[in-house]
Design goal:
- The protein is of the alpha+beta class.
- It folds into two domains: 272 residues, Aspartate Aminotransferase, domain 2 (3-Layer(aba) Sandwich); 140 residues, Aspartate Aminotransferase, domain 1.
- Strands 3-11-10-9-8 form a five-stranded mixed beta sheet, sandwiched between helices. It has a four-stranded antiparallel beta sheet with strand order 12-13-15-14, covered by helices on one side.
- Strand 4, helix 7 and strand 5 form a beta-alpha-beta unit.
- Helix 11 packs parallel to helix 14, helix 14 runs parallel beside helix 17 and helix 16 packs across helix 17.
- It is globular, with a radius of gyration of 25 Å.
- It starts with 19 loop residues before the first helix and ends with a helix.
- It holds the Pfam family Aminotran_1_2.
- Belongs to the class-I pyridoxal-phosphate-dependent aminotransferase family.
- It comes from Suillus luteus UH-Slu-Lm8-n1.
């Protein structure tokens, strides 16, 4: 069987980016037959081809979901959590009308996901991101999507580009098959475009192998730093990607809505739809289309929305806005990459489970919340997390900032704050190890790393509170692509702790009290 013809008018020819593995992988013959069958014009087609148990043998005929009624209150999340709001019942049936029936959801299917589910997610993606000429592939969540994309492009000996502090669960994934990372210097606004271009210009293929061709980036609410790329930086980075022929992997669980201000620099924190400090209007539009339009207008443009070449792959997930255990997400990409990802999935993980696809399909359909109702839930979810964030910042000011040993950023998105610890105030802080560096620009010149590790262990073992030290997220530096003049080694800049405000107020307050006490004891010893 042959793949369907690819529309060659969708953008640049980017097939040369595919890994040898992706080029050599062939379509799963059985799954390819399913595609041909699904495209048959015969309406009463009898299939005796596949090994599916007949739907009459499924031990369930109906699935009921009790969900919040998002139309009856301006804050459905609070009402749902307090058991004070109305509920809505959504059904999946085997034999009655619904958006995705049980008999259609549970047979063996193809890798891209069930058509009904892909259709509602594609509609949502088009409404929110307006991507030109892109296709949706369902995944088993964010991690599954990103690791598959890494294998789509990575060869042994390759180097991928990313933030100098990045999420290790993702950056660890391609190491086993020989892909290494190059961390790009950041500031409070995220990756610095000029530093990205500097690495590409300076790259010596004779010493380091082929020039990097993949950039993995969390452009808004970067995990862990909370930094956010301005629209101006996004445009510069996309232009650099065009000049140097980079593929951009946009981690979409980490973007934000932005307040309407004259400032182009938008400090934030992870997870796309968990965004705060959005100016609230006095009234909520009753018209669904108007509500979606207003909601979308608060979103900062994504790399996907500005992609005219097809060089952006965006990874999204329902984990942080519905439930992590759903293990359902999606990749938005050009058609070539979409088909290659489907080939990979057909011969590996197979598509996501039918229960999650049924729920999302019903939720986004006419029988459920629809896209407008989902946007109302997201807006309410932001309000809930903003209250938690504000509570943490108030307690931090009272219990930690007063020590004089630490400060914290104010994230406009996500579930984390980035706490800076002033190790230079510690009596055992040492500066001036240049004589031991051997002239290398990446060797530590202070004992910041040792003090950070000691603080982490003391807070955990003495105070009973845990934060993630910034060294966990640091991408190892290499002198081959680091400027020697004026460079401060990354190990001397690992002076941060990442903390979450996803818990209850009781947990947050106890955690900040213990941090303040722990810092006082640590710095006075």
């Amino acid at each position: 069987m042959k793949h369907p013809q690819i529309d060659t008018n969708e953008g640049a020819d980017l097939s040369h980016h595919l890994s040898t593995e992706a080029r050599d992988r062939v379509a799963n013959p059985l799954k390819d037959i399913l595609r041909v069958i699904s495209e048959s014009p015969v309406t009463d087609l009898i299939s005796m081809a596949n090994g599916d148990p007949h739907h009459s043998l499924y031990p369930f005929r109906q699935i009921m979901y009790e969900v919040p009624s998002v139309q009856d209150t301006s804050d459905p999340v609070t009402s749902w959590r307090n058991n004070s709001g109305l509920a809505q019942i959504i059904h999946s049936y085997k034999d009655e009308e619904c958006a995705l029936s049980i008999r259609d959801a549970f047979p063996y299917t193809r890798a891209a996901g069930l058509k009904q589910c892909r259709d509602v997610i594609t509609n949502f993606t088009n409404l929110i991101f307006t991507p030109p000429n892109h296709h949706v592939t369902l995944t088993l969540g964010n991690s599954d999507g990103i690791t598959k994309v890494f294998r789509l492009f990575g060869e042994k000996g390759d180097h991928f580009l990313t933030d100098e502090f990045s999420f290790p669960s993702m950056t660890n994934s391609p190491l086993a098959y020989g892909v290494k990372w190059v961390g790009i210097k950041m500031d409070s606004g995220g990756i610095i475009p000029e530093e990205l271009e500097k690495v590409l210009i300076k790259w010596d293929e004779a010493k380091s192998g082929r020039r990097p061709h993949v950039l993995y980036i969390i452009p808004v609410g970067q995990n862990p730093t909370g930094s956010t790329l301005s629209v101006d930086r996004r445009k510069k980075i996309y232009a650099i990607a065009q000049t140097w022929d980079l593929i951009i992997i946009e981690d979409g669980k980490s973007t934000q809505r932005h307040p309407r201000t004259s400032s182009d620099t938008l400090p934030a924190d992870p997870y796309y739809f968990l965004q705060y400090d959005i100016p609230q209007t006095n009234s909520t539009p009753a018209d669904p289309d108007e509500f979606i339009k207003n909601f979308r207008s608060t979103l900062i443009p994504t790399f996907l929305s500005m992609d005219v070449d097809g060089r952006v792959l965006r990874i999204d997930t329902f984990s942080k806005v519905l439930a992590p255990g759903m293990r359902l997400g999606w990749i938005t990409s050009n058609e070539l990459f979409h088909l290659k990802l489907a080939d990979y999935t057909d011969s590996s993980t197979q598509p996501p489970h039918a229960f999650g696809q049924m729920f999302v399909t019903e939720m986004l359909s006419e029988h459920g919340w629809k896209t407008e109702g989902f946007c109302r839930w997201l807006k309410s979810l932001c309000m809930d997390y903003q209250r938690r964030r504000d509570f943490l910042l108030d307690v931090f000011k009272r219990e930690v900032e007063s020590t004089g040993y630490a400060s914290v950023n104010c994230p406009q998105a996500g579930m984390f704050v980035w706490i800076e610890v002033f190790f230079e105030k510690h009596p055992r802080f040492v500066r001036g190890w240049e004589s031991e560096s051997g002239g290398s620009p990446v060797v530590a010149r202070t004992n910041t790393g040792q003090l950070l590790e000691e603080l982490f262990e003391r807070l955990m073992n003495t105070q009973g509170v845990v934060f993630i030290p910034s060294s966990t997220f640091a991408i190892p530096e290499n002198p081959l692509w680091v400027e020697s003049d004026g460079h401060v080694p990354l190990s001397d800049r690992t002076r941060f702790l990442r903390a979450t405000f996803g818990g209850t107020e009781d947990i947050i307050e106890k955690g900040m009290i213990r941090l303040g006490k722990g810092l006082r004891e640590f710095f006075q010893n």
